[in-house]
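Researcher: Here's a chain I'd like modeled. Treat it as a single chain, no partners, no ligands.
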Amino acid sequence: MLDALKFLMFVLLLLVTILLNRHVTSKQSAELDLDLLWQIRDGKGVYVLVNQTVPSGVYTALEKSMVIGSLLEEYNDVNTSWVGQTDWDYRVNLSCVAGDYQYVVLTFHGVDTFSDVYLGDRLLGTTDNMFVRYRFDVKDQCDGGTNELRLHIRSPVVEARRRAQNRSLPIVPECPPEGYHGQCHMNLIRKMQASFAWDWGLAAPSMGVWKPVRLEYYSSVLIRDITVAIADERGTGDLWTIDVAVHLEAGLTAHPVSGVLTFKIFDVPFAAGTEPSVTVTDTTDERGELVVRHQLTVRKEAVALWWPNGYGRQQLYSLYVRYEDASLNRVKQPPHPDTLHAEKVIRIGFRTVRLRQDRSADGRMFYFTVNGVPIFAKGSNWIPSSILPERSYDAAYVKFLLYAARDAHMNMLRVWGGGLYESDHFYRLADELGILIWHDLMFACSMYPTDADFLRTVRTEVQQNVRRIQHHPSVAVWATNNENEVALRQNWYNTQANYSAYYEQYVELYVRLVLPEVQANDPWRTVLLSSPSNGDETGQDGFVSTNPQDPFYGDVHYYNYFLDGWNAAQYRGGRFVSEYGFQSFPAFNSWPEARSYSPDELARLINHRQHSPYGNEPILDMIRFNLPLPADNGSTSYWPDLIYLSQLSQAMIVKTETEVYRARRLVYGTMGALYWQLNDVWIAPSWSSIEYGGTFKLLHVWLRSIFAPRHLVAFVDEGHQLEVTAVRDTLGPVDEFWSVELHIHRYGEFSPVDRRTYDGVRVPPNTVALVTRFDIYGHLAQLGLRPADHLVMLYARSATGVLLAENFVLLDKLKHVADCTDPAVTVSVVSSACSERNNLTTVSLEVTVRAPALFVYLQLTPENSSTLKQCQFSHNGFLQFQPIRTVRLTCVDPGCRNKIQPRDISVRTVNGLLRN
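Model: Modeled as a single isolated chain. Structure tokens:
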């Protein structure tokens, strides 16, 4: 009986498998996902993984099948390196019926990276660029029979090594630094450059089908992309003009196209004189592609503007485009009319974004205006949300990160050039949240080849990705690469001996190919040749400036690990600082090994994952400069204490630097501050403000204040004067009048020992205003007060007494504080609730102290970190100069199974470390 049941189950499973792989089609144009029942196996057949889904990657499939442990645990970046050096096959049975369809096209939206694609015994073609969409005509094989679709994916490590052989001019750098534990020659292949290791990430030479695979059935054309250029008619007219380019496909060869394109913007009428339709009579190119252009107009009063976060609403409109084949209008109708039309909807926003580079007395300005309003760009740099491409498009996690950026008052993110062209979901969310995108093309920190095959695939890559992304109103500017100009000019990779040859390659790739391709497909935006660069001045400098980091032109990347980053006087800034930052360690309880590792073992793991060429020394040096450095590296509290101090130091450094840039908006013309970096790809020392998985470092909690639309900035400047500046990013027709109070506090006392008040401070909209600049140290001397025992607390209130902003200034290094009274911090739970709808736990905490507490650091204990996710404290690392403070904790708690108690929260303060 048992054997009969087993046989019956086998038959049922076989029937289900056959049915799932026979794609029954209607007569309508269709896109059918081939996402189920794939098999993945290595080239020798040692590992065979069945019932796999795509999108997929080999590392992910091996993890899910428990062939390997998590790539992100312990030393698995090295232990699993064999995966990326092995060839793999993806296989699935495919049955399709072409029927009356004129075209049946097998489309791979993303293959990572080198593959030979077979259907049955027929080689359809090859892939060699993970950023490119590949199409194959399979109509002749869609006869109702079953064929095996197979991708033989070759090792990118081996392929990169092969391409490096016998080159007269090496493409440098040839390998990453040894401490990265990475792979070589990543710049020879069109793959996510960071996948061979970076200074913030592990080597994971991924392979797989990382985007959907689809069968596309149609008989006329398919609308692949819609691009737009929306213009305010010379800024003075009553109309918006919308230049639309519709990118059609009709198979893979030249083919006549005859039909009508119809346009509609839902809920928005076209202006008088606009033709809502255009007749198409043309022939596609040899790839089956055709671009049809048309202009639409709408009256300005019919639509609302799209604004960046903090400046207004993000109004979006749906632009609908429909194609109908001419044969549909004949007297005798074709037998299956639904196969002869196509349609697509994109969301657009009405806004102008201009990168202003006007001449100034000392160079050129460099700032963005949106709808004519100058915008101070506040934000960060975005790296892929996962080192494995198939995971990087995780919609929920991308949403979490972008909302975290929005909630920290960011209005711009820079999509960095060593990662990925992001998912459609990413750009849709950026549109909705008002986050402007500075978008690099995917070239970073390297020289690149310019042989014919490389240039061919790059051209396709740029065309396809710019067309896909271009219509999003959030995209503000393109840059063809990250740091390649400055690397060439400053001889980062020993290019000086062959400078002319490398210079020619640089110009060939970016000036003659990438730049014009971006401009041809996106006439709506400025294209910069590099980041950093001198902007418009770069072209006049022969495309590689003598100093691409000139602070009087373009954008700069600024890092300094050897001067005291807590000292505001060292920051000069530039017109636009598109990268800057400092490292810290992830929270102690974020290391899954922390509970079982000894301090020495954890130190070895942290050192293994520290990819900065300088190691941990900059972190330790900054702590030595300003804080008490824990001495006993063998104690159980050493790493928890050091991690806390590293996060406090990072937050202070980025706070200080960012606030100088915001306050010196008028003095230095600085109009952008994008710190490096928002997110991480594993638990490791890095520059991020959000750890991998979603835990906020202290920096990210502080950013809510640092980037606040109304802020009070104060620091001791290069003349040892206390400089206080009111910062206002909000718009409005009238000036605001603030009341600013400066309280001088002794570290051990709740009440201030002195105060100064500035009433009626005039703060115009969208600018900064100096409140005061005075000799704070002279003032303390007159009062007989020692700077090391005091700090300044600042408060700004509106004319009606509403608190607008608060801040603090340290007058000496914290390690010099003498009054280190034990604050006796206690944490109590006031209330707790969990929503079963979204599994979000919210806990209200009261933090009580008996003396002022310095930089109170709250963390969940390690026992909770495995079940609670993306935990955030509303305030953390704070100065508590009042006996009781309320803090809110939110966590994702699947199933609402946890009940947080005071014992689940650990507390650290600088007071405690000063007293040790």
